[in-house]
Each structure stands twice: as C-alpha cells, then as structure tokens.
Amino acid sequence: MDEAVRWRHAKAIAIVQVNDRVVLLKLTEMTSTTVPFALEGTAAAVWHAINGRRSAEQVAAFVTKGFDGDLKAMVHDVHSFLLGLAGGGLIEPVGAGS
Amino acid sequence: MKSTTIGLVESVLLGHALVATVARDHGIRVLIIKGPILAIQGLRVTKVSADVDVLVDPAAYPQFLEALAGLGWHERPSPESPPMLVPYHSTTLIHDLWGCDIDAHHSFPGIFADPQVAFDVLWQRRTSVSIAAVEVPTSDVLGNAVIAVLHALRDPAKERSREDIAGVTETLRAHLNENLKQELYQLAAVLRSLTVLKPWFDDLEIAVPQGDLTPQEQYLWDLRRADSTRAIRFARQLRDTPWFRRPAIVWRTLWLPEFQIRMEHPETGPGRRGLFVARLRRWVAGARALPRAFRTLATADRTLHEDD
C-alpha cells in the first residue's frame, strides 16, 4: 500500500494503557484465537502518533523527532508495522469504512 | 517494534470490553459487576481483580455461554470433589490464550428473589461506565453497592471483605439521607436480601423490622457463607458418612493427587518442593477452618430443625 496513505485507529477496538504499554483488542470478527495485542516502546509511540492525518512518513517523523537516524529506513519499518496493524484490523486507511 | 505478553490487569480490563461486546452483539442483557466497576463508581479503592464478573439475564444464560464458547471460552474443569451443598450461582469460564477468567452469574448469593426478578430490578437501574474505551453496562451505584456488600458478607471476617464493606459504607454515608436509606431498603426488600444485609443496615442505621428468609433459605445462606472455605463441604461429608468409611475420606482429602492440588491452587510452586509446600498450607488452613465449619454446620442444622 502507498506510503502516503494516512492511517487512523479502527473503531471497534478496546484499549488499555498501563504505563508506556498499549494493549489492544479487536472487537469485530472475533474468533477463538482473538487475543489482546500489546505494544511497547516505539510500537506504542507509533500507535499514539496515528491520528487519521498522518501518513507512514509523517508518523515516522513524529516518532523520531529529535533523534538522529536514517529516516528512510525508519519510514520503511513504520510502514511495514502499519501494514501489520492494518492486517490485524487495528488500524485502517483514512477513507475506508466511512 | 514487537508485541509482548499480556498482564492480568490488562486481560481483566479487556475482558470487560469483550464480555460487553459479545452480549451486545447477541442482544443479551448483562450487567458487569464487582471488580474495577466498584473503583470507577467510587465504592472502593482500585484493586487487582482476577476475573470478569458478569450477571447475565437468566433467560439468556445458555445463549451467553454459547456465544462465549464460540470464542473459545470454556468451563473451568473442576476437580472431583464432594458436591456443593448449595446450588451453583455461576460458571467460571477460561480461555487457553487469555490470562483471566470470566465468572458468568445467573444469580447472586445473598439475593433470594427469583433470579429473573432480581436481574430485571438491577437492569432497570442500569448505567454504563467506560472500561478499555468501551461502554460496559452495569448497575447504578446503589445496585453495585448492594452486590459488593452481599459478596463481602459471605466471609465478613476476611480483611478484604471488611475493607470492601468499609469502602462502600464510607461512599454511601457521604450522601446518606432518609430518601437514600428508603431507596436502599426498598432495593434490598425487592431482592429479598434484607436478612442478609441486616448487619450492614444496622451500621447504616437502617431498620430491618422483619427478616425475609425462610428457615430453608437461612440454612442455605449459612452454608453458602461457610462453603467458601471448602472446609464445610468436608465437614458435612464426614458427618453424613458411616464411621467406617471416614478414614478413607480423610486420607483422600489429605493426599489429593498432584494435578488436583495444582488445579485448586494455581499458585503452587514448581516441583516436589512446591507441591509439598502447597500440601502443608492446605493442611494448616484446613485444620484452622474445620472447627468453625463443624460449628456452622451444627448451628445451621439446629436453626432448621427448630423452625420445623
């Protein structure tokens, strides 16, 4: 999927935040293998950066603000991660389902 | 970026969201009770809960269990043990991939009204609170206060029970006027919990002029209170067994197989040492609880027969 796509959190998600962890549960299309999914550290920061207005590049830039590093590589990692979250139904591209 | 294991607190909170969602999706009326709800409604300080407690519309109870079974939740296998003396009021559900239980109630101990009547009364008082970013249905503060105190009164000597009753009492006292007292009394009356709640009502200076339990119900409540210790079950089994079979019962109870010990006491440590420590603790706890269990049994029996 295009890296310019903007992402937002899916609607039917239960969220628990304990310290710097974010634990998510998808509440649609549940099956016997539906279990909570925890994000920590950078993964949690990425989750918080997703606001429906940011693309993978903007999310990566937001998360790495103030850090030196290879933004291009980071964008790639973030994009892969976002696709993983989307595959799990935890986020969706803006424009989907609205 | 990686996912990690899920803690108990997180599992329980998300379990609330799961239960509320499953019930809503299947059109089943449920009220989440106890646990984090009490802290949210200001009825106690935040404590770690090990399970999700839910009161289910009795008419839809089988459908609710079925809906959760479809998601992999199944009844916790119970070790072979003497039958419960009092009817089961709930089913404990577990999931192989989740770290918490769901305790699905079709009735609640201490409420002697018909379970359907009781549920409907509490349902009329329903509200919702946000847990894990999901609105979950529950009773209002008064309904949950009554449930919390009923639960604590099953074992009022326990420190946690005393704290729970004190927390609820403190919260209600801040708003307690004659109208609220009247409302509380009426709620207890329709739930047929006046007798059970009398010790608490005495503390709140709410008069209970007349008890509302039959001798049989009083007997069941006395057993229910004691049954939570397991010792009463053992005491009653011993009492009801011919003397020549008693040594075998004692032996079996003292030397439960390892799988049974570990099932009843999940906190048991690994290996033979862990098993030994668990057995030792069990014996000590049993030795302490038995005298009270026999006394409770005798008192309950006496009460029942006096009223015959």
Fold blueprint:
The complex is a heterodimer of chains A (98) and B (308).
Chain A: E1 7-9, E2 13-18, E3 21-26, E4 37-39, H1 41-49, H2 56-63, H3 71-87, E5 91-93
Antiparallel strand pairs in A: 1-5, 2-3, 3-4
Chain B: H1 8-25, E1 30-33, H2 36-40, E2 51-56, H3 61-69, E3 73-75, E4 90-95, E5 101-105, H4 115-124, E6 127-131, E7 134-138, H5 141-153, H6 159-173, H7 178-191, H8 194-203, H9 215-227, H10 231-239, H11 246-254, H12 258-264, H13 271-306
Helix pairs in contact in B: 5-6, 9-13, 10-13
Describe this structure in words.
- The complex is a heterodimer of chains A (about 100) and B (about 300).
- Chain A is α+β, with helices and mostly antiparallel strands and about 100 residues long.
- Helices cover about 35% and strands about 20% of the residues of chain A.
- Chain A has helices at about 40-50, 55-65, 70-85, and strands at about 5-10, 15-20, 20-25, 35-40, 90-95.
- Chain A has a three-stranded antiparallel sheet. Chain A has a two-stranded antiparallel sheet with strand order 1-5.
- In chain A, helix 2 packs across helix 3 (about 70-85).
- The longest helix of chain A has 17 residues, at about 70-85.
- The mean pLDDT of chain A is about 85.
- Chain B has about 300 residues and is of the alpha+beta class.
- In chain B, the strands form two sheets. A five-stranded mixed sheet of chain B has the order 1-2-5-4-3, with helices on both faces.
- In chain B, helix 5 (about 140-155) packs antiparallel against helix 6, helix 9 packs antiparallel against helix 13 and helix 10 (about 230-240) crosses helix 13.
- The longest helix of chain B is centred in the C-terminal third of the chain and has 36 residues, at about 270-305.
- The radius of gyration of chain B is 21 Å and the shape is globular.
- Chain B starts with 7 loop residues before the first helix and ends with a helix.
- In chain B, about 35% of the residues are buried.
- At the A-B interface, strand 2, strand 3, strand 4 and helix 1 of A face helix 1 of B.
